From TrEMBL:
One of its GO terms (molecular function) is hexosyltransferase activity. It holds the Pfam family Glyco_tran_WecG. It comes from Candidatus Gottesmanbacteria bacterium GW2011_GWA1_44_24b. The keyword Cytoplasm does not apply. It comes from the Bacteria. The lineage of its organism: Bacteria, Candidatus Gottesmaniibacteriota. This is Glycosyl transferase, wecB/tagA/cpsF family.
Length: 292
């Protein structure tokens, strides 16, 4: 059964329950046998939805993902506000709940541990990925995997730049692969996935960098140059999750999470993020204007 989805300001969001999504992934994990099969997971929040209104390529990437988790209290509010009615009773559909990226990542790691599948934590700074993996192994001793800090990425004019040296341009239908654009880092990442038999990749670079990287990685693995080298790969964008798992940033108390104020807790802990919260106000205005 396909997952339920709902469009919000032009971005498709997965609205199935957490249990349904996990079950769907586990099933896909078991039956994908065709070459170069990749399952993409993104975690849109209001800030990303606002960015998608300005960056067409970013919107395309979000909409091409297999799963777009509703990660953010504002996003869930908007989805429930726009819930479709179900005929003939004309009642609102099932209540949509927030699915946090960090909780979903932890659950995927449990799946990986149970299935003896290797994971890769890629991104972050100062060894956060390695510390996050060590933390996950305390919870799931059977978890096998690797961790690596990511290089410095930039997005400029819808082009993906790596360490101000390598550049990946928006690919064309006739391009052979992203390799033709000199992406040594993408090549390194693909070779690491291949040589270490990685099955799940968590990319923590922040949006939209991580989504652009997932798009580049997907095209490279599925492209003619590397045709058929890999299958059954799950790739998930996780933002700043590594810092939380590594203990660098304290997560909000459970009660704060339940009431949807985790963003406010994060702002209290990192006041420099106040500019980013302006996107939440912009998001609310966009939703209210659309309803008029």
């Amino acid at each position: 059964m396909p997952l339920s989805k709902q469009s919000l300001l032009g971005v498709s969001i997965t609205t199935s329950s957490r249990e349904e999504i996990l079950s769907w992934i586990v099933k896909k994990f078991s039956i994908l046998h065709s070459p170069f099969s990749i399952l993409q997971i993104v975690t849109p929040n209001p800030e990303q939805i606002v960015l998608a209104q300005q960056d067409e390529k970013f919107r395309e990437i979000l909409n091409s993902a297999d799963i777009a988790l509703p990660d953010g209290a504002g996003l869930v509010w908007a989805l429930n506000k726009a819930r479709p009615c179900v005929a003939p009773a004309a009642k609102a559909g099932p209540w949509i709940e927030r699915i946090s990226g960090i909780d979903f990542m932890i659950e995927l790691c449990k799946v990986a541990a149970d299935k003896n599948s290797r994971v890769l934590l890629y991104g972050g700074r100062g060894g956060a990925a390695g510390k996050a993996l060590a933390s996950l192994r305390k919870q799931y001793p059977d978890l096998k995997g690797f961790a690596e800090d990511g290089p410095s990425f930039q997005i400029s004019n819808f082009k993906f730049q790596i360490s101000n040296k390598y550049q990946i341009q928006k690919y064309k239908k006739d391009s052979t692969s992203y390799f033709s654009n000199g992406s040594a880092e993408i090549k390194h990442l693909v070779q690491m996935i291949r040589s270490r038999n990685i099955r799940i990749v968590f990319i923590g670079l922040g949006a939209p960098k991580q989504e652009y990287l997932i798009d580049a990685l997907t095209y490279t693995v599925q492209g003619p140059t590397l045709h058929g080298i890999y299958s059954n790969l799950v790739v998930m964008a996780v933002g700043g999750v590594f810092d939380v798992l590594a203990g660098k940033i304290a997560r909000a108390p459970k009660l704060v999470q339940q009431f949807g104020f985790e963003w406010l807790w994060r702002l209290f802990k990192e006041p420099w993020r106040w500019r980013r919260q302006l996107s939440l106000l912009q998001f609310i205005l966009l939703i209210l204007r659309k309803k008029k």
